[in-house]
Amino acid sequence: MRFKVFVLVSVCLLVVTGISCSNTSKKSRPPVSKIDILPKRQKLALGDTVQVAIKVDPKNGELAKAELYFDNQLLTTSENEEFSYPALPLNSLGKHQLKVIATKTDGVEGISFRTYEVVSNSTPELYSYEIVHTYPHNTEHFTQGLEVHENKFYESTGQNGKSGIYLFNLQNGDVLKEYKMEEKYFGEGITIVNDKIYQLTYKAQKGFVYDLNSFARVDSFTYTTPEGWGLTHDGEYLIKTDGSEFLDFLDPETFSVLKRIAVYDNNGAVTNLNELEYYDGYVYANIWQTNFAVKIDPVTGKVAAKIDFSGLMSVMYNPAKPIDVLNGIAFNKANGKMYVTGKLWPSLFEVKLVKAD
């Protein structure tokens, strides 16, 4: 008897389940959006204006609205499955993101993305150089930063156990004052602001501040980028590199990043930006592991000029005493003279830039 009751109940449950399933609609699917940038171009350049065309496929349902965002800023909202944003100005370099959030009448939402890149709208000028003077340079100094301040020459060095900051005599290379860092720190770029020396470290995510006159360490700060490379200032901001294509502009009091710009030429991002120097409205940066430096517009990030320092290393070639890469750019702001050196180089050069033919 119990067995018959169990069979009857089971049959009833199967029937009810079958009826319930047959009356349940399919699960609502998220809508998908296609994002096109028109006109289609191989490269999008600074100053261009483009149209963004959107086509939404709501799948099994009806579209309630679609929102178009540019770098997370809402541009427009539409209830149509096809719409456009007619004039989007490309006024900043680098990678940007378009996003569409499409919502159906049943509340189901779908998010679609399109990333694009904006390059410079001008070709950099090309420069070579002439050597004006050659000065001795300490071959034990793994140069990470070079600075001229009030006609005095300063340098920061890297490598664990060999890092420090130095005041040196240009004429003979002799060290006049020094501060040796703790062995755990790998020193990087320096700059001088208001009688203080600011210095980065490579991977410790920590910077230090020193009194210019005594070299006493008076403060420290941290930064969130994994690495610190070059450092300079424009009178308002500290400007920092981390080996990428970005320049970070820091508040010299709080050390917070107030803005960040990408550095691009007409071909794309310029990465490995290393030692920095600000002079006459431009940021100069050497490109790590190359013989080149670039002159950067700090407002837009456009590369205004490219400087080829090929040949300097061959002048100093000595198989018994190997040297490392170019890494030191400084201007004497009192007279406009430009100086370059590198890691473990025996020479520091005063150079004159010459426009290439």
What is this structure's SSE topology?
Elements: H1 2-22, E1 32-38, E2 44-45, E3 49-57, E4 63-70, E5 73-78, E6 82-89, E7 94-104, E8 109-119, E9 125-136, E10 143-149, E11 152-157, E12 164-168, E13 175-180, E14 187-193, E15 196-201, E16 206-211, E17 217-222, E18 231-233, E19 238-240, E20 246-250, E21 257-262, E22 273-279, E23 282-287, E24 292-296, E25 303-308, H2 312-315, E26 326-332, E27 337-342, E28 347-355
Could you explain how this protein is built, in words?
This protein is mainly beta. It has helices at 2-22, 312-315; strands at residues 32-38, 44-45, 49-57, 63-70, 73-78, 82-89, 94-104, 109-119, 125-136, 143-149, 152-157, 164-168, 175-180, 187-193, 196-201, 206-211, 217-222, 231-233, 238-240, 246-250, 257-262, 273-279, 282-287, 292-296, 303-308, 326-332, 337-342, 347-355. β12 (164-168) and β13 form a beta hairpin. The radius of gyration is 30 Å and the shape is elongated. The N and C termini lie far apart (105 Å). Mean pLDDT is 91; it is low at 1-24.
Gist of the model:
The protein has 357 residues and is mostly beta strands. It is built from two helices and 28 strands.
Strand content: over 45%
What oligomeric assembly is this protein in? single chain
Global shape: elongated
Order of helices and strands: HEEEEEEEEEEEEEEEEEEEEEEEEEHEEE
Q: Bin the helical content.
A: under 10%
Rounded mean pLDDT is: 91
User: What is the count of structural domains?
Assistant: 2
Please state how the strands of the largest beta sheet are arranged side by side: 22-23-24-25-9-28-27-26
Q: CATH superfamily membership of the largest domain, which one?
A: TolB, C-terminal domain
CATH architecture of the largest domain: 6 Propeller
The total strand number stands at: 28
**Which sheet architecture does the biggest sheet show?**
8 strands, mixed
Number of helices: 2
* Radius of gyration from CA coordinates: 30 Å
What is the end-to-end distance? Answer: 105 Å
